[in-house]
Design brief:
The protein has 326 residues and is of the alpha/beta class. It has 13 helices and ten strands. The protein has a six-stranded parallel β-sheet, with helices on both faces. Strands 1-2-3-4 form a four-stranded parallel β-sheet, sandwiched between helices. Helix 7 links the parallel strand 6 (180-184) and strand 7. The longest helix is centred in the N-terminal third of the chain and has 20 residues, at 78-97. The radius of gyration is 22 Å and the shape is globular.
Length: 326
């Protein structure tokens, strides 16, 4: 759609969907819902109105809420209050349009249940969106280029809170342990620069990939001994960056917070420290950096959990089952 999800593009999409085809009641529309993905600075109300109108045409609509709403809190700046209010209205329309609502974490259920009118809400954790590249030689070559026996990696987006945590963690870790740091993903070059700005003597041990194609991301992940994935609200089953680490059988140190589900405490698939506790994070990363057997135990538990619960086949099975039951 040339205009992304602007009104003109929605009209075009509607015309395409309404062309003579199979019976409308046999058609299934799956919406991967993240408010920021539809443009308009996460306030694309026309899209959600369009989706609600589409639901009146006998089509079966499945909505997968990867994200639900921007939280509405007291004493927020006015612009955040407006954004939160609009995303709540958008979520209401999208949920009302759905025959079945899927959520990436149980935390979204409380935000959406009042909008669903008793329709089913099903937890559907996301799989990794980075396929595991089979070429181990490339991963070995990357390890050789980093010239370190132990490589600590981080993968994912770099919002302000995560960047702040990493900028304070990694210089302290490098002073304490003989490791190298590999930052994987977009915006990593800027993050590397901010890490070494105050510690230029560490520059030779901090590496950043920048944006990469999927296979290269997989090779970079496979070259790491330990992944560090802190989240301000805690790890949860909506975190694709953690799923990628699990799928690549990497040991992961992450944080437990308000959104962290019991499965992370029960499975042993990751090493957990309290969200916001930088000293605990540093201590656990330092410990595992020198504990190969400990990393191996966590990695084995992680790939087992991923295969049993998060692999793509589970997602496909659940979507097919929901469509067939409508």
């Amino acid at each position: 759609m040339p205009g992304h999800f602007d009104p003109r593009s929605l009209l075009r999409l509607g015309r395409e969907l309404h062309k003579p085809s199979s019976r409308l009641e046999e058609e299934v529309v799956l919406v991967q819902y993240v408010p920021h993905s539809f443009g308009f600075k996460a306030m694309n109300l026309p899209f959600c109105l369009w989706l609600y109108a589409l639901s009146r045409t006998r089509r079966r609509i499945l909505v997968m809420f990867h994200e639900a709403t921007v939280p509405l809190r007291r004493r927020q700046p006015l612009q955040h209050q407006i954004l939160a209010s609009v995303t709540i209205l958008m979520a209401m329309l999208a949920a009302k349009a759905a025959n079945v609502v899927f959520i990436s974490t149980p935390a979204w259920k409380d935000r959406l249940i009042r909008f669903t009118g008793g329709r089913r809400i099903e937890w559907l954790p996301v799989p990794s969106n980075v396929s595991v590249a089979p070429d181990a030689e490339d991963a070995f070559a990357m390890r050789q280029s980093l010239k370190s026996d132990t490589i600590i990696g981080h993968f994912g987006g770099y919002d302000n809170s995560i960047s702040y945590s990493l900028k304070h963690l990694f210089p302290r870790l490098l002073e304490r342990s003989a490791v190298s740091i590999l930052l994987i993903g977009r915006d990593t070059i800027a993050l590397r620069n901010s890490i070494i700005q105050g510690s230029p003597h560490l520059a030779s041990r901090v590496f950043a990939t920048g944006g990469l194609p999927e296979k290269s991301i997989s090779i970079a992940l496979s070259s790491c001994d330990l992944m560090v994935q802190p989240y301000p609200d805690g790890v949860s089953t909506r975190r694709g960056s953690t799923m990628a680490g699990l799928a690549h059988q990497r040991a992961i140190v992450t944080t437990a917070g308000a959104f962290t589900e019991p499965i992370w405490f029960d499975s042993g698939a990751v090493a957990l420290v309290p969200a916001g506790d930088d000293d605990a994070l540093l201590g656990e990363v330092s410990r595992l950096a020198s504990d190969e057997s400990g990393r191996s135990r966590i990695a084995s538990a992680g790939i087992r959990l991923y295969d049993e619960r998060f692999a793509l086949r589970h997602t496909i099975k659940a979507l097919r089952a929901a469509a067939s039951e409508l």
